[in-house]
Amino acid sequence: MPQSTAAAKHAPAVKQKKQMRVDILRERLPRIPPEKLNAAQKKAAADITAGPRKDVRGPFVPMMRSPGLTGPTQALGAYIRWGVKVPFRLAEMAGLMAARDWSCQFEWAVHVPHALKGGLHPDTIAALAECRRPEKMKKDEAIVYDFVNELLKNRGVSDPTYARAVKHFGEESVVDLIGVVGYYAMIAMLMNVARTSPPSGMPTLAALPLYSRPLV
């Protein structure tokens, strides 16, 4: 028997590392070709493209299956993005917390650049991505964090947290803040079910340890 064959025969077996298999799931509700849109869908799409969004994208791609829902939702979304009394930086922070709560990749990818442009610190965003309380926040950011964190985790807020938010922002802004969280939670649910893919090259969320497990 050749020496190399004999050595291979008696060499200790090498333990193979178990690899994690990751499946890329196909979108359930992709963009509807323009020629297949019905009259109500064409109107909903035209209303979106005529507004500040300029194009049907993100949650409105799967939502287009229900033009009756699309119309009022895109109007609400426009108010959430450009009309709320909550400062832009804080609204984006609340939106990121909702995106992380639902682990919505598209929502996170799109809104991280907005949050950075609005002045939210990268360390704060990194902490939100890991579901940690950011260590260094401005006073208004800490108030928003406590309010939104309680709202998402407890489905309500305590009297001290509510009173602190109202004292700092006022009732109108607090109601708007709740609307921001609710809106982004709703579209996160839709895009998670639709498996809407995030834009390529954009920041994405890592799986939380609790949910990180091999696919077999």
Features:
216 residues, mainly alpha, disordered C terminus
What are the SSEs and their pairings?
Blueprint: H1 3-10, H2 39-49, H3 60-63, H4 67-82, H5 88-102, H6 105-118, H7 122-129, H8 139-154, H9 159-169, H10 171-194
Helix pairs in contact: 2-4, 5-6, 5-8, 5-10, 8-9, 9-10
Task: Please provide a written account of the structure.
There is one protein chain. The chain is mostly helical and 216 residues long. Helices cover 59% and strands 0% of the residues. It has helices spanning 3-10, 39-49, 60-63, 67-82, 88-102, 105-118, 122-129, 139-154, 159-169, 171-194. The longest helix is centred in the last third of the chain and has 24 residues, at 171-194. The protein is globular, with a radius of gyration of 23 Å.
Q: Detail the poorly predicted runs.
A: 11-23, 211-216
Helix percent band: 55-70%
Main sheet summary: none
Helix count equals 10
Distance between the termini: 41 Å
* Sequence of secondary-structure elements: HHHHHHHHHH
Rg, rounded, reads 23 Å
- Going by helix content, strand content and strand pairing, the class is mainly alpha
> Mean pLDDT across all residues, rounded?
87
The geometry reads as globular
The number of E-state strands comes to 0
Strand content: under 5%
